[in-house]
Specification:
single chain; about 525 residues; alpha/beta; Rossmann fold; 3 domains; eight-stranded mixed beta sheet; five-stranded parallel beta sheet; elongated; Glycerophosphate_synth; membrane
């Protein structure tokens, strides 16, 4: 019951967030709405004054009330946006709590302003001067709390802009995801900073800020945008910023991409054949950083036509930490296998995870005589729904590890997920078992064998739908012949040559840290190249 309530609460939180971020994402559209709504207020005021003139009522009070009314209604006809809060930026005080508390709800005052604005217009048209003055006073009283909060927002933005101009960041790492930030941001931040340039992180979900900062403690200043993201970014995009980078498919990034004075670059958080790696939203990016030709082929294969010149192939900087095998796995008496099931996704069509059958996979690995490193996707550790399941799976390895009658020496839990990086897990392993995941693409840098579990596709179509599977061993969702396939991978490994070819197709020609060096040099070039749109 508690898990169901948590999921319902999460759904409501996301819905509330979408409502709070309902502002338009295009600068010209936002400007157009502002101009037309202001013009409508002026037209209403002019009509009221015309009627007052025709009725031969005193005009001075009417004109003053009309001007004040237009200005006050224009300033207070919408709820004040929540201000951004900032961490780690010189010149801006740290908030006492993270996320910073929202200001009081001014919705009732906004509604009152709208109604009293109409009353004031009627008073200007038909009422004597005393009644007009009274209406204006009521309107001003209703608008005062709204305008006061907007002044707070204006001051916060001004302080932040001054601090950013002094800091002179060259790029922004935009993050609007609901989860995975410790992985996604942590994956790219060191490689972006290796360019030698300053950057800042802009997050779109204030409640997620504390969790992410506690998990990875980013080196770059963190700006958590308020509810009016586009309004914040119009103020915060200082002249030194040339490029925005994105590592997550969040639709909220469209708000950041409403800023057209900068370059918008898609990095993603890994090369895989999941839908997120060929999304039609990527058509909006100015540049797409891809690992190798496989990424470009993937878009074309799924009908997403992106001009070739918008891609830049830089390999996978993170794969430089993945070391090739010193000894072929087939010559290791008791091989170590990394089992890294992917996240379940947001629906059946994107659920490639083998976690629901992970107990059978772990037991098969034990029977095959291997040591196991069990590293589930870190989001599993934050999801209460999976807590009990993870305890059961960890217990399988713990029991074998602690049984002196077995040779098994396994790694699981905190040590595997937080103690070791993904690359360290890979470097300790002789073979991999995973799903449709970017883990497989990164693993190719090792040259070591891997097995993929096909949870969605039938086995005869798996390699066509997921080309990286062509270089690995495969089992279906029923784990048919798993012991036999494991034995083939661990003791014979006939696919070694195919993996070498696939590595170049997926990761490019880069070896060692060459990809990381190429990436940091390219980031530096982009950071110092202003965006000029045709």
């Amino acid at each position: 019951m508690s898990t169901l309530l948590e999921r319902v609460r999460g759904h409501l939180d996301r819905r509330e967030h979408r409502m709070r971020h309902r502002f338009r994402t295009d600068v010209s559209s936002r400007n157009g709405v502002f101009v037309w709504s202001t013009a409508a207020l002026v037209a209403v005021a002019a009509l009221a004054l015309l009627i007052r003139w025709l009725l031969d009522l005193p005009m001075v009070a009417g004109v003053v009330a009309a001007v004040i009314g237009v200005l006050v209604v224009r300033a207070a006809m919408l709820r004040p946006a929540t201000p951004p809060h900032v961490h780690g930026l010189p010149g801006v005080p740290e908030p006492k709590v993270c996320p910073a508390p929202d200001p009081a709800d001014r919705g009732p005052f906004v509604i009152a302003v709208r109604w009293l604005g109409a009353v004031t217009a009627l008073a200007v048209a038909f009422a004597p001067s005393l009644a007009v003055g009274f209406a204006v006073l009521l309107l001003a009283a209703a608008a005062a709390p709204v305008i006061a909060d907007k002044v707070v927002l204006w001051r916060a933005r001004l302080t932040l802009r001054r601090a950013l101009k002094a800091y002179e960041p060259r790029f922004v790492l935009g993050y609007g995801g609901y989860g995975g930030g410790p992985i996604h941001v942590g994956m790219w931040e060191p490689h972006l900073l290796a360019s030698g340039d300053r950057g800042v992180i802009v997050g779109l979900r204030s409640h997620y800020c504390a969790e992410l900062r506690a998990a990875i403690r980013p080196s770059m200043p963190w700006i958590s945008a308020g509810s009016d993201v586009l309004g914040d970014m119009r103020v915060l995009t200082v002249p030194s910023v040339t490029t925005f980078f994105y590592v997550h498919n969040a639709p909220g990034h469209l708000k950041l991409m409403g800023i057209r004075s900068v370059r918008h670059v898609w990095l993603g958080h890994g090369d895989s054949d999941k839908a997120g790696s060929h999304h039609t939203r990527h058509l909006r990016y100015d540049v797409l950083v891809a690992s190798g030709e496989a990424a470009i082929d993937r878009y074309a294969r799924h009908g997403v036509e992106i001009p070739r010149e918008r891609f830049v192939l830089l390999g996978r900087p993170q794969s430089g930490d993945v070391l090739p095998a010193e000894t072929p796995g087939t010559e290791v008496a008791r091989p170590t296998v990394l089992y890294a099931p992917t996240w379940t996704g947001n629906g059946k069509m994107t659920d490639f995870s083998s976690m629901r059958i992970a107990d059978r996979i772990l037991r098969a690995l034990l029977v095959a005589g291997t040591d196991v490193i069990f590293r589930p996707h870190p989001v599993f550790l934050r999801d209460a729904y999976w807590a009990g399941r993870l305890e059961e799976l960890n217990a399988i390895l713990a029991a074998d590890h602690e049984d002196l009658a077995t040779p098994g020496r396994h790694v699981w839990g905190e040590e595997a997920v937080r103690g070791w990086s993904v690359a360290e897990c890979m470097n300790h392993a002789d073979a991999l078992v995973s799903d449709v995941s970017s883990v497989v693409s990164d693993w190719l840098a090792s040259g070591k064998p891997y097995l993929m579990v096909s949870m969605v596709h039938d086995l005869d179509e798996f390699a066509d739908a997921v080309p990286v599977a062509a270089g690995g061993y495969m089992v279906d969702r029923e784990l048919t012949d798993l012991p036999k396939v494991l034995a083939q991978m661990l003791r014979e490994d006939p696919l070694a040559a195919r993996r070498r070819q696939l590595k170049v197709h997926v990761l490019g020609e880069f070896e060692g840290d060459a990809s990381a060096r190429a990436f940091s040099a390219w980031v530096h070039e982009m950071a110092h190249t202003p965006m000029v749109r045709g």
